[in-house]
Design goal:
Layout lengths: L1 H5 L5 H19 L2 E4 L1 H16 L11 E5 L26 H8 L3 E6 L11 E2 L3 E2 L1 E2 L2 E5 L5 H8 L5 E6 L5 H7 L2 E4 L19 E6 L2 H8 L32 E4 L10 H15 L4 E4 L7 H23 L6 H11 L3 H21 L5 E5 L15 E2 L2 E2 L8 H9 L3 E8 L5 E7 L5 H15 L12 H6 L17 H6 L5
Parallel strand pairs: 2-3, 2-8, 11-12, 11-13
Antiparallel strand pairs: 1-3, 4-5, 6-7, 8-10, 9-10, 9-16, 13-17, 14-15, 16-17
Helix pairs in contact: 2-3, 5-6, 7-13, 9-10, 9-11, 9-12
Length: about 500
């Protein structure tokens, strides 16, 4: 799309209209889009077209419609976090990632749906309702970047943003059949992170293919002195994405990292993917890591971050917080300074193990989720492989174990599972080796592309538009309320 715009073969206005038409046709079936900004987006597209016709130098993302996760502030555009207390919140400024992408020429078109305050891997909230999986709208689209993943899978938007603490970029990407990259901490600046030195939460790109994700990533990186973890990185490292020979890759694989509950079905599908991968790489060997302290460490570190973000609201207006958020803040009250120190010591040991493993391997691969998508009406997977989950996020252990390592990780769509739903392969790379990880993932993606059993699946758009779908807004307990300023800006809100 961007190449065609630069060659005057595609009008940014035509592209914007096409995306808006697709949103209006498909979104009623899956409810991936939250607030929309079509009027300003069309005006920006008109300006982008004028720049093309004047022959001006164009920024890298010039004219591309962008979806922004509804946890990320957008200037003049409703940003609710899926929370009833923020139904009228219209920020004055963009967050650091959105600002960088606007500066690169992307046009903010819509916000994408999230769980309440981003807590959990099921995108549903009392403001906008639930997001359905584009392959079966009655099932979970993942979270917390579920709206972005579903919008990408159905072609409503070409590029979207996400964020990831315990898998929020990787899990919805896996369940919806797109690519989500959790970058190394600090590579994509986040100037609004409450705990400035915490590496648990990151911002990152989502796209349909690895190449698109790398193209978007090139405009996401760069030093921001308001983020204590931010560091300089060159856009040229990511785009054009360097080619990589898959036959030279040394791959380590694990079904469960030695501590995760994983269903028998996911194990079978993962083994088939490993067998297919082994045909294309130099070596593919099992890897053993001691992750026995990962659950406890993540409990403490996650709770710490939730206290930083929500303690004041929990004290003053607890009724505005969803049950997942309250659970994390309440959990933190039981932890001591000794618990915190032990958790960070455990995380340090996990990170060191991963670093050691990458002396032997170029990639570590694992499943992304332990189960096939379940109905969105179920808040979370309460049981996996006969094991009762201790809390609402324990079923995300395959992802949050990698989060603790601080290494970059990507979800690559690899065909379908035994229920016909998308299957994601989690690929982990060296710390700050994000460009290498993307290159390796692109090589595997290309090797799998010719096999329908392994290639990225695509949803049936005709099915989504041809028949009425059950309402995905049935869990909305409070209708969206816009402030006067917001109502003036948003002529259209889902």
């Amino acid at each position: 799309m961007r190449a065609l715009i630069g060659a005057r073969q595609l009008s940014p206005v035509e592209l914007m209209d096409a995306c808006i038409d697709r949103i209006e046709a498909v979104n009623p079936a899956i409810n991936a889009i939250a607030a929309t900004d079509f009027e300003r987006a069309r005006a920006a597209a008109t300006q982008a077209e004028a720049r093309v016709m004047r022959g001006e130098a164009l920024p890298p993302l010039h004219g591309l419609p962008l979806g922004v996760k509804d946890l990320q502030d957008t200037a003049g555009l409703l940003t609710t976090f899926g929370n009833i207390a923020l139904r009228g919140n219209v920020p004055r400024e963009d967050n650091s990632l959105v600002a960088a992408l606007r500066n690169a020429g992307a046009i903010v078109t819509a916000k994408t749906n999230v769980p309440d305050m981003g807590a959990g891997a099921n995108t549903r909230n009392p403001v906008w309702g639930a997001t359905g999986n584009p392959f079966n709208p009655s099932l979970n689209a993942g979270g917390s970047s579920g709206g972005s993943a579903a919008a990408l899978a159905t072609g409503m938007l070409p590029i979207c943003t996400g964020s990831d603490t315990g898998g929020s970029l990787r899990i919805p990407a896996a369940l919806c059949g797109v690519v989500g990259l959790r970058p190394s901490p600090g590579l994509v600046a986040n100037a609004s992170r409450p705990l400035g030195w915490s590496a648990i939460s990151v911002l990152g790109p989502m796209a349909r293919t690895v190449e698109d994700a790398a193209f978007l990533m090139a405009s996401c990186v760069g030093l921001n002195r308001h983020d204590a973890l931010s560091y300089p990185a060159a856009s040229a490292d990511f785009w054009p994405l360097p080619a990589r020979d898959p036959s030279r890759l040394r791959v380590g694989y694990t079904e469960d990292f030695g501590f995760c509950a994983v269903s028998a079905e996911v194990r079978r599908v993962f083994r088939a993917r490993v067998k297919a991968l082994a045909r294309h790489v130099k070596s593919c060997e099992p890897i053993a890591l001691d992750m026995s302290q990962a659950d406890r460490a993540f409990d403490v570190i996650r709770a710490e971050s939730f206290v930083a973000a929500f303690a004041e609201t929990f004290r003053n207006a607890p009724e505005t917080l969803g049950p997942n958020v309250r659970a994390n803040v309440e959990l933190a009250a039981a932890f001591t300074l000794m618990d915190r120190a032990e958790a960070h010591l455990a995380q340090t040991r996990i990170a060191a193990q991963f670093a050691d493993a990458f002396e032997q391997f170029d990639l570590i691969v694992a499943p992304v989720t332990p189960v096939t998508p379940f109905p969105w009406t179920e808040l979370y997977a309460k049981e996996v492989d006969g094991q009762t989950m201790a809390n609402y996020y324990r079923w995300l252990a395959l992802c949050y174990g990698v989060t603790l390592s601080t290494h970059p990780a990507l979800s690559l769509p690899c065909g379908r599972d035994e229920h016909g739903m998308p299957f994601g392969l989690q690929m982990v790379g060296r710390l700050r080796g994000d460009a290498e990880l993307l290159s390796a993932a692109a090589a595997v993606e290309a090797a799998f592309a010719g096999d329908a059993q392994l290639a990225r699946p695509e949803p049936d758009l005709a099915m989504l538009t041809a028949k009425p779908q059950p309402s995905l807004k049935s869990i909305v307990t409070h209708p969206p309320v816009l402030s006067a300023d917001a109502a003036a800006v948003h002529k259209t809100a889902v």
